[in-house]
């Protein structure tokens, strides 16, 4: 399992989700985006729909008909109705259900920094686990660890 920690700085969460979603969907995988905040999920949906036409990112919410057909599913829970192999925790809260996915992304900012650090430490040395840390340097995302 891969776990990527993305420290949000300059760009808003919804823009970072769209960036990751482009890569995940471009690789032919499905994605689940989780947040306990319904307003954040709405902002993410809007950002995904408004992404450049060449990178159209269809998405839907878990509580609507056809959720299982969505390449990108937005939800308040970790139930991958769309059989996603990748999950983004957009609200900065790690959930143990991440182990059910091939790859997890924890997006965190200043408000959730301590939780992300604790999560990083708790995942240290896990067998079959690969951790990575990304930070924005100017306008580019760089892998720091």
From TrEMBL:
<dbReference type="GO" id="GO:0003887">
    <property type="term" value="F:DNA-directed DNA polymerase activity"/>
</dbReference>
<dbReference type="Pfam" id="PF04364">
    <property type="entry name" value="DNA_pol3_chi"/>
</dbReference>
<dbReference type="InterPro" id="IPR036768">
    <property type="entry name" value="PolIII_chi_sf"/>
</dbReference>
<dbReference type="GO" id="GO:0006260">
    <property type="term" value="P:DNA replication"/>
</dbReference>
<dbReference type="InterPro" id="IPR007459">
    <property type="entry name" value="DNA_pol3_chi"/>
</dbReference>
<protein>
    <submittedName>
        <fullName>DNA polymerase III subunit chi</fullName>
    </submittedName>
</protein>
<dbReference type="GO" id="GO:0003677">
    <property type="term" value="F:DNA binding"/>
</dbReference>
